[in-house]
Amino acid sequence: MDREYSNSNRRLEDKMEEECGIIGIYSPEHTKNIADLTYLGLHALQHRGQESAGICVRGEDRFKTYKDMGFVTNVFDEERLAKMSGQMSLGHVRYSTTGSSKLVNAQPLLINSAKGELALAHNGNLVNSDEIRCNLEKQGAIFHSNLDTEVIAHLVAHSFKDDIIEAFTHSLQQVKGAYSIIVLTEDSLIAARDPYGFRPLSIGKLGEHYIVASETCAFDIVGAELIRDLQPGEMVVINEEGIQSNYYCERKPDSFCVFEFIYFARPDSVIEGQNVHLARRAMGRHLAREMEIEADLIIPVPSSGISAALGFAEESGIPYEQGILRNKYVGRTFIQPTQEIRDLKVRIKLNPIQEIIEDKRVVLLDDSIVRGTTSKQIIRMVREMGAQEVHMAISSPPVTDPCYYGVDTSRRQELIAAQYSVEEIAEHIGADSLAYLSQEGLLNSINTTRNGFCTACLNGDYPLVGESDKFAFE
Ligand code: AMP
Known about the structure:
Blueprint: E1 21-31, H1 34-44, E2 52-58, E3 63-69, H2 72-75, H3 78-82, E4 86-94, E5 109-113, E6 116-126, H4 129-138, H5 148-158, H6 164-172, E7 177-184, E8 189-193, E9 202-206, E10 209-213, H7 217-222, E11 225-229, E12 234-239, E13 242-247, E14 256-257, H8 258-264, E15 270-271, E16 274-275, H9 276-291, E17 297-300, H10 306-316, E18 324-326, H11 339-349, E19 350-352, H12 354-357, E20 361-366, H13 373-384, E21 389-394, H14 416-419, H15 422-429, E22 433-436, H16 439-445, E23 453-454, H17 456-459, H18 469-472
Parallel strand pairs: 14-23, 17-20, 20-21, 21-22
Antiparallel strand pairs: 1-4, 1-10, 2-3, 2-4, 5-6, 6-7, 7-8, 8-12, 9-10, 9-11, 12-13, 15-16, 18-19
The structure holds adenosine monophosphate (AMP).
């Protein structure tokens, strides 16, 4: 994995790194507990990234940032938060794959340019960052991290526009790809969503505070109310003049990431008008109709299969059982990129209950198969508990293509459905039968205000492709 981009010194394996959660809070006045609120919001967004966590607050006349590797609860404590009062704040949790798990890549990123100071936090993955980075390096820019966020920061610093908001707008007009981004200037909070609307971003209100966050579960935890989702290509500026919205580029075809609904988002979040749990339950119902199986039990792979398994049980009449228990206290901190450790991880996390499974014809339901490791392990464990038959039900279509826009669905060569047919996968994972939800069934399960989704990981239909993507993700 040490191949390098031809036009950049950035390591290949650092590419798939931007599966993150972001939150920003604007208050009309200096607020003592602004970091506490941000911390709570980040806590709710923890599922979007467990590698590092960071908060930046704008105090009286300066920014204060603290970030470190690890979970939100490990990085922050009461004492640290108490030192971070201010009028605006910005928080980030980061997911990263092997090779890029370094503090230097943690966010928010703070830059000091001639136009003023700027703090940035970003979720997504740009597809032309290597080209931009290369051009900026030729002009003398020195990069400290592998972050796409730093590319945007340098574009702001290099922009010919003097006003920092105009410079930021100008920067976003040059980047391509998936981004939901929040920045703090010295007096404003700015939030923007790319013109395709790949990643989620919503605005809420808590009293006089405005909150912008990746998912609405961050509003619930602090008691904030959802106002609306940012629109693709929309930029919102919040400052003492109030809240202003504008569209900074031409709108592209709606391409909201369907994998947010399949797996990534939290079930209690509402995205584009659709509750995620209910969408997943509908996926389970569709799958039951398409699969038409006779069995004694439907058992979810916890936690990702629970919502769809409920729908499956409702539709099929097969009783739902919690036949596999999940140890809640296993983090991802020790995940190593070797196959042996991945297998061990599944065993540590999940434990089947013999008394429920023995002599039963079982349908196991999970949201997706990526490499096939999880399903193979679980089926083996369920068989060891004496199941008579094990049928695997997957509440999404096969993941056949890598994601260029920030979800870590692996490279093509690691995706089992890119290499093998459904029958071959069933054999590989040791299932008596395997059924995936159809793409039609998936899309019919999601009832949103958007007209279209990005389904590239399921059918290779990429809304936009950068020069180095095809090579980088193979
Ligand atoms: P695998 O073992 O590689 O087939 O991965 C499938 C399992 O990982 C399923 O249980 C999914 O819920 C979960 N999963 C799917 N996508 C992701 C992702 N992007 N990051 C982490 N886990 C995932």
